[in-house]
Amino acid sequence: MPATTLKRTPFHRFHAAAGAKLVDFAGFEMPLRYTGDVREHQLVRTGVGLFDISHMGEFRVEGAGTVAFLDRALANDVAGMTVGQAMYTTMCLPEGGIVDDLYVYRSTDHFMLVVNASNTPKDLAWLRGLCPADVRLSDHSDETALLAVQGPKAAEVLKGHVPDAALAMPSNRFVEGPLFGVPAVIARTGYTGEDGFELYFKGSDGARVWNGLIEAGRPFGIEPVGLGARDTLRLEMAYMLYGNDIDETTTPLEAGLGWTVKLAKPEFNGRAVLARQKEQGLTRRLVGLVAEGRRVPRHGMVVESGGRAVGVVTSGTFGPSLEQAIAMAYVEIGSSTPGTRLEVVAGPSRIATHVVKRPFYTRGSRR
């Protein structure tokens, strides 16, 4: 069979020129690392890094019935959003499983949904199946570029190149305005636990914005950062990775995302199941694990208590900012209390761990 052609973002040539190791990620040829995962991780924690995340999907939703439609499709409170607000939410099956986790942006006359790259076709089909006649849903993923500037020095990099209002706003807000002279959505959001911005603009303006950010960030030590460091940064914060920590077999309540579920709404996909689950209590929960050594629990490893299987690891890494091996795992509710000692099966041996509260890392600069 012929090899599958990978998609490329508008910044591919910059990644190649910087010597990035390029890999297949969600059908895109993406930078895994440039100089090293740990170095790039610490750059974001202490200074500022630049991420290409243009593989993410962007949908535009508009029309008279948009608010009602999105409130039925999503678990969080869309009707309660204000213009300029960005909101994290889950999108559930009627059975309560998670179709995707995503961000919703409310503008004056439309909403933008930002979905996971691997789920973009699935999400689009799912939403179109729910979409009423008075709502227009369009896919703008291919034409939209998305860069993230993350780290405690992120605002300094953008100062003078975005509206002053963008630098004054708190997390989970956005403005629409010029970015190095091109139209953009400038959001104070991110996936790292640090202060930062996610910048949406036309792919045709990619070179201008990339070069502008590199030049503006030079005094602050900005460098591009790959997917390897993005994963360790998000896992230290216990942020979800779809396909690992959440999927259609897990519910938001089990994943600790109950704050994204507004059961007071009259109806939304999965509401009945989630209300029943909350009333009856959970049988399992996603917990944080810290290993009592440097060996890392990995995705799919079985978790045991007293020699009996009680769960499975979803994500694991060595946290550079913590200098600890950390993981997340679904475990039986009786084994989910912080301080509980559990063992992770790693071939013929065991990794001693204990349950901790999430997030693992609590010193981030996110506003």
UniProtKB/TrEMBL annotation:
EC annotation?
Answer: 2.1.2.10
Q: Where is the GCVT N-terminal domain?
A: 11-265
Residues of the Aminomethyltransferase C-terminal domain: 284-361
One biological process term from GO is: methylation
Q: Which residues bind substrate?
A: 198
Free-text function comment from the UniProt entry: The glycine cleavage system catalyzes the degradation of glycine.
Which family does this protein fall into? Belongs to the GcvT family.
Name of this protein: Aminomethyltransferase
Instruction: Give the organism the record lists.
Output: Eiseniibacteriota bacterium
The beginning of the lineage is: Bacteria, Candidatus Eiseniibacteriota
The gene name reads gcvT
